[in-house]
């Protein structure tokens, strides 16, 4: 799931942008959550607690500060959020380069240029998504949100960290081939697990961050343990 935010003290514009984003993201079948801030102080406080957003729409001009100063503060927290600046003019465009924004959106052009900004964002992050064709349509699932794949009858089901599940056609072998550089491990003939969500491996059982337990194949127990130790140490080799 992608986390998005709008920070703008113009409530009317924020509402318009919110509706445009919801419409566009629904058309793309993107799972997302959207938070609205009306001042930079609240946004900064959110980041100070260790939270962040994947994509942030940030106004340039506020009563007592600027969006560029706010972005510098967020960057000081090592936040790698993609930032789209919002402005009524291009006056601050050159200065904004200092904080490496994804896009600079003129408010009067928002409907025309919003799709361009979103396309740039998803092109940048597309390698981090896994696409499936399900009854809901073609879905882009952020790999970081995937808990595990499971054989489900003659199909597969994918389970996400937000509790969602989707059924689609395929095989675990094909999934493994499609995710060669990602940290998934075949825990059992019926399960392919994202190691980023493993909290514990006990004998013949994997505990996930959601509390879900996944069985481990006895013959693969040692190799699974070894792979997880390597992953935990920063190695992606399996």
How is this structure best described in words?
- The chain has 238 residues and is α/β, with parallel strands linked by helices.
- The protein has helices spanning 11-27, 40-48, 67-76, 93-96, 110-125, 172-178, 221-232, and strands at 2-7, 32-37, 55-59, 82-87, 103-106, 129-134, 137-142, 146-152, 155-160, 165-168, 184-188, 191-194, 198-202, 205-208, 213-215.
- 26% of the residues are buried.
- Helix 1 crosses helix 5 (110-125) and helix 2 (40-48) runs parallel beside helix 3.
- Strands 2-1-3-4-5 form a 5-stranded parallel sheet, sandwiched between helices.
- The protein contains 7 helices and 15 strands.
Compile the SSE list and pairings.
Layout: E1 2-7, H1 11-27, E2 32-37, H2 40-48, E3 55-59, H3 67-76, E4 82-87, H4 93-96, E5 103-106, H5 110-125, E6 129-134, E7 137-142, E8 146-152, E9 155-160, E10 165-168, H6 172-178, E11 184-188, E12 191-194, E13 198-202, E14 205-208, E15 213-215, H7 221-232
Parallel strand pairs: 1-2, 1-3, 3-4, 4-5
Antiparallel strand pairs: 6-7, 8-9, 8-12, 9-10, 11-12, 13-14, 14-15
Helix pairs in contact: 1-5, 2-3
What is the CATH C-level name of the largest domain? Alpha Beta
Radius of gyration (Å): 21 Å
Number of domains: 2
Q: What structural class do the secondary elements suggest?
A: alpha/beta
Order of the strands making up the biggest sheet: 2-1-3-4-5
Give the H and E element order: EHEHEHEHEHEEEEEHEEEEEH
Oligomer: single chain
In whole angstroms, how far apart are the ends?
A: 26 Å
CATH topology of the largest domain: Rossmann fold
Sum up the overall morphology in one term: elongated
Low-pLDDT regions: 234-238
Task: Tell me what the CATH architecture of the largest domain is.
Answer: 3-Layer(aba) Sandwich
What's the count of strands?
15
Tally the helices: what do you get?
7
Report the β-strand fraction as a percent range: 25-35%
Main sheet record = 5 strands, parallel
The CATH H-level superfamily of the largest domain is Response regulator
Task: Write down the overall mean pLDDT.
Answer: 88
How much helix is in the residues?
25-40%
